[in-house]
Amino acid sequence: MIHFKQIIAEKIKENIEEVEIESIINLIEVPKDTQNGDYSFPCFSLAKVFKKSPQIIAEELKEKIELGKEIIKIDVVNGYLNFYINKSILAKEVTEKIYHEKENYGNSDIGKGKNVVIDYSAPNIAKPFHIGHLRSTVIGGSLYKVYKTLGYNVIGVNHVGDYGTQFGKLIEGYKRWGNEYDIDNNPIEELTKIYIRINDLCKEDESVLNECRNNFKKLEDKDPYCVELWKKFRKVSLQEFQKVYDMLGIEFDSWDGEAFYTDKMDEVIKKLEKTGKLVESEGAKIIDLEEKNMAPCIIEKTNGSTTYATRDLAAILYRARTYDFDKDIYVVSYEQILHFKQVFETAKLLGLDEKYTKGLIHVPFGMVQLQTGKMSTRQGNMIKLEDLLNEAINKVKSIIEQKNPNLEEKEEVAKKVGIGAVIYNDLYNSRIKDEIFNWDIMLNFNGETGPYLQYIYVRTNSVLEKANYIPDINNIDINIIKDEASEILKILYNFNEILNSVVDKNEPSILARYLMNLAQQYSSFYNEYKILDDNTQIRNARLAITYMVGIVLKKGANLLGMNMPNKM
């Protein structure tokens, strides 16, 4: 496919040797207002280099740059060079590419030979899989799919929280009251009740908290009773979690949680000791990070038990050796920013190749909060993710019953639309923003929502069904497409670039907003033109646009984790 940005960058580079072509490409923008061209190059960064105003630089460049078959016009506005591309070439390129590649459109091999570990979801064993876990799960799930589409070898890891002091608490609670609770038939809820009860007792009695800590130490030391209980808690929890993953279509390549690294932490401690940087502080072992303006990284607690940081460091060592990663991405809330800064800094002391320490990436996201405030397992004010998804499905069923009671496969459509609404709502906004959980907002079926996206896709399907054919590429008049749908063509053309932006910034909202823009543009096109025109040439061109939009909407939605219904 012709790369218009590259062509423009090369034309600019011919006339300004002082700037690298990669920098020029990165500066080229797509204007929001089409009156400012198809691509713009801001000359402001060149003002210091050439000691001239951006406007003068832009005007001088315009005079020097030669037009060609791809670039048909250049103008200058307020220090910007605006480029207008040949729409006939654009229409031909996009149409041929989508018709040839179909659902593979947007794929590339840019990531070939590169290994990417994505650590996402990671719920805690024996605790509810609640809406607070939704963000890590769907952001990580989408990144997993987009990286794969771009040719990367991706390893999805569910680093479940199956270790730590909370298990000392659960074990203590089970010892005291286990026979009062029906763990086998209702595992998560019953274990949560035990956890809340023992946590309350710990607040009242310090000696109980010490017993809990000792239980965790026993677990680390492979005490048979504690290990047996831990295995039971883990097994029943994972069975419950899988129900939610099945609903969301989420898969993992590894379920190695914190416990997997219990026999791998000694090596971490020994490596850190050899550096001389592991020091004692108030009975604990720490890495002093004061020179990095950070609190110390605690490696071993005063009672000899390890920490999250120790296990994360062991995981880094293991993943470097096992997966030879280029990136090791952690999709974890912004509350853990300091933790990962400490861990990534400490990882530099493990003797790893710089490739690995540079590849450590924390992808933070905002919290999901209730309208009444922050959620807490200890307070028992969680909304289970399974309940949320089922509620979304049920609400969609009610709408279908009202609007389209004769719809075939109502159950399946309700599932796709309900779950799609939840996923799209989460991914539409920048991941770093906090999200106040609100049923009405999440399940609003108007405006910029998942159901709207699905509705537009269903419309493309319906149009093609009525036509009863997809026009052959040889029977499509490119000039009609160019004249009637130039904005849609530009959006379709940019699909692969959008996917590259998603992985560059680890930000699925870029794709979510792109798809909304495409859906809205097609809706305008549909309202402006009669698709099934009596004139065969016109009908074929408009059907071709409909077909191509449908392909990209479906492909993009799938990359977000949404399934598209054929009817609604």
Describe the structure.
The chain is of the alpha/beta class. The protein has three domains: 4-85, Gyrase A, domain 2 (2-Layer Sandwich), CATH 3.30.1360.70; 120-369, Rossmann fold, CATH 3.40.50.620; 385-430 and 441-560, Isoleucyl-tRNA Synthetase, Domain 1, CATH 1.10.730. The chain contains 23 helices and twelve strands. The strands form four sheets. It has a four-stranded parallel beta sheet, sandwiched between helices. A three-stranded antiparallel beta sheet has the order 1-3-2. Strand 4, helix 6 and strand 5 (153-157) form a beta-alpha-beta unit. Helix 7 packs across helix 9, helix 12 crosses helix 13 and helix 19 crosses helix 23 (536-560). It starts with a helix and ends in an 8-residue tail after the last helix.
Brief overview, please?
The protein is of the alpha/beta class. The chain has helices spanning 4-13, 21-27, 47-50, 54-64, 87-101, 134-149, 165-177, 187-204, 206-220, 224-248, 265-275, 308-323, 337-347, 354-358, 385-403, 410-428, 439-442, 450-467, 478-484, 486-493, 495-505, 509-528, 536-560, and strands spanning 39-42, 71-77, 80-85, 115-119, 153-157, 278-281, 284-287, 297-300, 327-331, 360-363, 368-369, 435-436.
